[in-house]
Amino acid sequence: MADLFETSTDNISLHLKNIYSDEELNEMATTEDSSVVRQEGSRQVTRQVKHYNLDAIISVGYRVSSKRAVLFRQWATRILREHLTQGYTLNRQRFESNANELAAALELIRKTAQDSNLLTDTGRGLVDIVTRYTQTFLLLQRYDEGLLTEPLTQAGGVLPTLDEARQGLIRLKADLIARREATELFANERGDAFAALLGNLDQTVFGDPAYPSVEAKAAHLLYFVIKNHPFFDGNKRSGAFLFVDFLNRNGRLLNKNEQPVINDIGLAALALLVAESDPAQKKTMIRLIMNMLTQGA
User: Fold this and answer.
1) Confidence at residue 230, expressed as pLDDT on a 0 to 100 scale
2) What is the pLDDT of residues 203-244, one digit of tens each?
3) What are the backbone angles phi and psi of residue 69, rounded to the nearest 5°?
4) Strand duo 204-205 + 208-209: pairing
5) Radius of gyration of the chain (CA)
6) Where is the Fido domain (predicted)?
7) What's the pTM?
8) What whole-number distance in Å separates Cα of residue 68 and Cα of residue 87?
9) Are 252 and 154 in contact (CB under 8 A)?
10) CB within 8 Å of 95: residues ≥ 6 apart
11) Alpha carbon of 237 to those of 21, 97, 186, 188, 211: distances in Å?
12) Which tens digits make up the pLDDT trace of 246-272?
């Protein structure tokens, strides 16, 4: 490390001591003692030499004051920025069969984030989504099971009746009109489209539920309301309302820390992503929503 960062061994030792005393890293987890045979004068002597892993080297690189260390930090910052703005760098040779789905999702997020009408708060929501989504990807890749295989879910899920859903939307509409944020067209149904949508979510296939979990029902409810346009106006807001109402009915609106599994900003960004997505990306969007619900639990 002294050679790498063009500084003294004493300086490296001091930084390592501070790194471990500050509990920035765990010494046992980042070092390993090895026996090494060394030539000392005319003798060959076996010595215990401490080896440091990459985490320790990187931490030292961010503390050392030298021209070489400055170059290292500039390089590391550039790589980090590229990862955050362009998506994670993947080992394509190993993960090619899995990476296409992640690339499609990140491209959709990138495209949506460039919308000139995007609000600052919604932009922060997009950052939250990409962070949680890529974390899901990395965890799943560790098991090499495929990009977004369905997570562990909670079986069941009680949907609102058609009348309950309609009454909820009527109350939402009245509130929005009172705040001059909607017109009389809001949540007006297109024929039987909304009734059919709820019926499809509750259907069975060969005796088993077509959507067997809370997460699956919630994800499809949000997706279908936004993409199938069962209302003349306000499909994104109606979908978001029904999504939250469904989670609340099934005790999944709050996590174990009594915090919303998806906050208002994140939900607005998620609804925007669904609206902007290509129908061919349906599978990706559904899995994204399901994984976010399980990670937020």
Assistant:
1) 97
2) 988 888 999 999 999 999 999 999 999 999 999 999 999 999
3) -65, -35
4) antiparallel
5) 26
6) 147-291
7) 0.55
8) 28
9) yes
10) 141
11) 51, 35, 9, 13, 23
12) 999 999 998 888 888 887 767 877 887
Dig out the tokens for 274 from the structure. 């669904």
For the chain, the DSSP string reads -HHHHTS-HHHHHHHHHHHHHTTSS-HHHHEEEEEEEEEETTEEEEEEEEEE-HHHHHHHHTT--SHHHHHHHHHHHHHHHHHHHH-----HHHHHHHHHHHHHHHHHHHHHHT-TT--HHHHHHHHHHHHHHHHHHHHHHHTTS-TT------B--PPPPHHHHHHHHHHHHHHHHHTTS--TTBT-B-TTHHHHHHHHHT-EETTEESS-BHHHHHHHHHHHHHHH--BSB-HHHHHHHHHHHHHHHTT-SB-TTS-BSS-HHHHHHHHHHHHHS-GGGHHHHHHHHHHHHHHH-
The structure tokens listed for 217 are: 């029902």
Residues 6+ apart with CB under 8 A from 247: 214, 218, 253, 261, 293
